[in-house]
Amino acid sequence: MKKVLTIAGSDSSGGAGIQADLKTFCAHKVYGMSVITAVTAQNTLGVSHIETLSSFSVRKQIEAVAEDIEIDAVKIGMLSNAEIILTVAELIKRFRFKNIVLDPVMISTTGFDLLEKDAKEALIQELLPLADVITPNLHEASAILDGLEIKSKDDMEKSVHAFRKLTSSAVLIKGGH
Questions:
Q1: Which DSSP helix (H) or strand (E) runs through 65?
Q2: Which residues are CB-neighbours of 175 under 8 A, at least 6 positions away?
Q3: Contact at 8 Å (CB) between 121 and 106?
Q4: Report field, pTM of the whole predicted structure over 0.90
Q5: Cβ contacts of 52-59, under 8 Å, gap ≥ 24
Q6: Integer distance in angstroms from the first to the last C-alpha of the chain?
Q7: Where are the alpha helices (H) located in 7-54, listed in sequence order?
Q8: 7-34 in b/e burial notation, b at 16+ Cβ within 10 A?
Q9: What pLDDT was estimated at residue 51?
Q10: Which end of the chain has less neighbouring CB within 10 Å, N or C?
C-alpha cells in the first residue's frame, strides 16, 4: 500500500484540509498520515478563527513520521506563515521526499486570509521549486503571479506561462468552471 503524508491545516467542518485529504487518501486506497500546521474553527459559512502551530511542532511531527515510515508522496496545503514554510522545505530536502503536490492555500473560499502576507515570497522561493505538481485556484494563482487577472481561458494559458518562469513543476489551475 502506498503511503501519503498530508501537511496542512485542520478544518473542523471536515470539508477541507487534513480531514478532506485523509478522506481522499482512503477513497484511493492509500495509507494516509498527517502533519497538522494549524487548527481552524470553520463551517460551511466561513472561517472564524485560526490557531497556527509552532514550526517546532510541525518539525517534530514530520520527523516522527519520516524517521519511521517510508513516504511515497506528500500533499501540502495550508502552511500559514514563512517559518512553517521554511521548515517544511528544509525537511522535504532532508528526507528527500518525492511526488510533492503543493496546493498553495492562501485564502478561504469565504475570503479569510490563510497565509500571512510576508509568507508569499517564502512559498514562491522555497516550495514552488520543490513541488512536482502545483494546484492553485484562480485567486491563489493570481496572488502568486502578482495580481495577474485570470478571467478567461486565454488568461489561464498566460498564467501557466508565467508559472513556468517561477518553476518547472506541472501546474493545474482550479476554478473558473
A1: helix 55-66
A2: 137, 138, 139
A3: no
A4: yes
A5: 52/80, 52/81, 52/84, 53/84, 55/81, 55/83, 55/84, 55/86, 55/87, 58/7, 58/84, 58/87, 58/88, 59/87, 59/91
A6: 34
A7: 17-27
A8: bbbbbebeebbbbbbbeebeeeeeebbb
A9: 95
A10: C
pLDDT of residue 113: 73
The length of the chain is 177
Q: What is the DSSP secondary-structure string of 137-174? A: BHHHHHHHTTT----SHHHHHHHHHHHHHH-SSEE--B
At 176 the pLDDT is 60
Contact 86, 59 (CB under 8 A): no
Nearest to 128, CA basis, from 176, 156, 88: 88
Give the gyration radius of the chain's Cα atoms: 16
Positions in the chain short of pLDDT 50: none
SS3 at position 88: helix
Question: Residue type for 96, please?
Answer: R
Place of cell 498527517: 34
- pLDDT, residue 131, reads 97
Supply the pLDDT for residue 4. 98
pLDDT of 44-94, one tens digit each? 888 889 999 999 999 999 999 999 999 999 999 999 899 999 999 999 999
